[in-house]
């Protein structure tokens, strides 16, 4: 993992209907790391991810991606910068009427001029990389929840993005399937060297996959902890200690 920042967030503030979600937040995400955004319910962790990929517009601050100012960029420049991202949404985001192969092929057909036989070669490679070889012709309704997540990940990887984003990847999965997905994330990170940005509150996953975390707090509306979760679990700050050790609120 490099110490070179691929994403630099400075003074980021987001508001909805006059309500501040977070204010003046700053942090870096390094090339090749698995970076986890965590915190309690309502702290703004999913909103933070959505802001990083342009789905939420901040009222203040900057996001520098690969040396380019994403917030100040024109619409065309933003689309080009966003090509650096692949995104696995919480619901997997697959089109129900399309086979897994068709779902994975869609970004390639939309954004490249590859001939169809090359597209299908890439589709096979991506599905194989997530353990879904042989499932090319299955519809999303014909596979399990964990397999849908893997198929969504294959589609997110279709254009070989530098940055892979995961919004609550374990949501709706049983513990064994969730652990299997964690292993896949680790293996892909090691094999591809991709930067991975993960939003989750699942402690087992956090301890297993995270190189580094930031913890957002609903009351502070900012980051209250940053670093290795295995160290943060012994924090002297009661809020941080309670989160990482599952201490219930009184």
Beta content comes to: 25-35%
Q: What Rg do the Cα atoms give?
A: 18 Å
Uncertain runs with pLDDT below 50, 5 residues or more? none
Order of helices and strands: EEEHEEHEHHHEHEHEEHH
Name the structural class: alpha/beta
Structure commentary:
The protein has 250 residues and is of the alpha/beta class. Helices cover 36% and strands 26% of the residues. It is built from 9 helices and 10 strands. The strands form 2 sheets. It has a 6-stranded mixed beta sheet with strand order 6-7-8-3-9-10. Strands 2-1-4-5 form a 4-stranded antiparallel beta sheet, covered by helices on one side. Strand 4 and strand 5 (68-69) form a beta hairpin. Helix 3 (100-111) crosses helix 4 and helix 4 packs across helix 5. The longest helix has 18 residues, at 175-192. The model has no long low-confidence stretch (mean pLDDT 94).
Short structural summary:
This protein has about 250 residues and is an alpha/beta fold.
Question: Which key terms come to mind for this protein?
Answer:
9 helices; 250 residues; globular; alpha/beta; six-stranded mixed beta sheet; 10 strands; four-stranded antiparallel beta sheet
Topology of this structure?
Layout: E1 5-16, E2 19-30, E3 34-39, H1 45-52, E4 60-65, E5 68-69, H2 75-82, E6 85-88, H3 100-111, H4 116-129, H5 145-156, E7 163-167, H6 175-192, E8 195-199, H7 203-209, E9 212-217, E10 222-227, H8 229-232, H9 238-244
Parallel strand pairs: 3-8, 3-9, 6-7, 7-8
Antiparallel strand pairs: 1-2, 1-4, 4-5, 9-10
Helix pairs in contact: 3-4, 3-5, 4-5, 6-7
